[in-house]
Protein: Glutathione S-transferase omega
Organism: Brachionus calyciflorus
Amino acid sequence: MSLKHLGPGSVMPPLQKGKLRLYSMVFCPYAQRARLVLAAKNIPFEVVNIKLKVKPEWYLKVNPLGQVPCLHFDDGRTLPESLLVSEYLDDTYPENKLIPTDPYKKAIQRLLIDSVTKVTGPFYKFLFGDSAAGPDILNGLDYYEQKLDNDYFGGDKPTFVDYMIWPWFERLEYLKQYKGLDLNENRHQKLFSYFERMKKVPAVKATIIPAATFDKFFKSYASEEPDYDCGIVQ
Amino acid sequence: MSLKHLGPGSVMPPLQKGKLRLYSMVFCPYAQRARLVLAAKNIPFEVVNIKLKVKPEWYLKVNPLGQVPCLHFDDGRTLPESLLVSEYLDDTYPENKLIPTDPYKKAIQRLLIDSVTKVTGPFYKFLFGDSAAGPDILNGLDYYEQKLDNDYFGGDKPTFVDYMIWPWFERLEYLKQYKGLDLNENRHQKLFSYFERMKKVPAVKATIIPAATFDKFFKSYASEEPDYDCGIVQ
């Protein structure tokens, strides 16, 4: 099956018995959360990529929210929302449990995950041209710099929290190289080492996109139909 | 120990070994989520009420977010945020499990819980004088009217989702009687029966506040120091 992003006029690829389907979009950080969990847990799945700006008519019937990620089960049930999808996958597939079983540790991880809005809020403003939001991104990173007291946010190996916040951290390199974000190692020393560690994690390697490809995509984003495939999916 | 709300100049009541403490405020719907779960699960706890508009100096050290609810354990650890507190309590105390063990049912409940912003968004606008937000509250209720397909949102008995959305439903009566919200049984027939059922649930009976008392409290809210005790806590 082609991984090319589907738009208006397309037909929903038929569901297949026993196959878990993920609706995704290659550059979407929320969908990447789900793809990171799927990769980290070695869960077999098929992906159907969606042109979010020019959606297939059938997709709004499958997921009235119109967003990705969304799971589609072979019995027709669906599940939207990145955190719900990711938690569902971790609950359902026991291999490599990512969410702590200790209720307090789980809650503290969730607090760290929900705090990513400190970064994502100014992130989108800056991405779409409001350079005054740059300092707010750095302030948001200060919070994580202060919270990082081990190799990863949940301990000495990557767990749920790392995968839930990584997609925006990954895109900082693009903001720095192509959009002039004043990100530097002196201010966020622990985070910079953490970023390097994360880039070697197999699930991250399986989903990471180079800064130059983000630049190519976001340059096309203002057009009526952005270049969702960007030469990286066929 | 007095339940009167504490403000500036107060001293933090000392933690007691083996006692779980909840910081709360009698009229706060988020804190009520935690109190509903505590009541539904018969969890022993002590409550310390906080004047949210004029906070005790010590409270910001305990919970830098400055909000309620917040749990305080006898070893000094804390946990803020109503959904995290409520989930933690359900995870930790096995009696009367409120969150579904089935991962898909759990995710669908969470989707219903997160959708309460459809009601809470316009709720606060309307409460603080923007009468144009009234129709948006009713639209938000349409969503729940449509989703209710059993005696309760999670099946034939109250579960997590019911307790997480109830606090705003409870306050609709006050908005109707004292603020002119055009709530009527013809439009929300299933919800009206549901409200009556919920009012008979023991945990709801343990925390419910009459519309007239809400009115007394919110009338005092514009002042520098609202009447948090309102004659109902001593």
